[in-house]
Fold this sequence. Notes:
Shape: globular
Largest sheet: 3 strands, antiparallel
CATH topology of the largest domain: Arc Repressor Mutant, subunit A
Number of helices: 7
Strand order of the largest sheet: 1-3-2
Mean pLDDT: 87
CATH architecture of the largest domain: Orthogonal Bundle
Order of helices and strands: HHHEHHEEHH
Amino acid sequence: MRSETEARSAHRDHTGRDDYESGVGSSDRMELRVWLRLITCFNLLDGAVRQRLYQNHATTMPRFDVLAQLDRTSAPMSMGELSRRLMVTNANITGLIDRLAREGLVARKPAPEDRRRQMVKITAEGRRQFEAMAADHRVWLSDMLSNLDRAEMTELFQLLGRLKESVLHSQENKETKE
Length: 178
């Protein structure tokens, strides 16, 4: 049987840093262990992508996310719709769009039916830069997930879908009880 110190070091990331799982043992509830594993995996993936976006493209994840949303549609998107899709506040989107517009990566104009609404569209230069970032992003994800075969990724995807449904169901039940 492994000592607590051995168990703890088994949950360090590749740099030797403790992660969220490092203090969890087999006697802890499985729900806690799953939650912490999800957080750890997200943080490892997210941190690596953020670092690589900055190093290779001098950009941030929020900028990448905005360009990705705008690249998916040919029509201009309202600032409100963009903030809903990214699950952030309008204030966060406004600052990002201001900077991206100054750099010529997006263009914005008032909506024809309501000039108070701003419509945003990716520019040709924004699309060119995004396509380079997206190509690298695909390679990075492939590399980070390379120890999983297609069947394992499919199973993980399905299990995460079930988890998402479970969380949403739990939230709906909580709202109806309140």
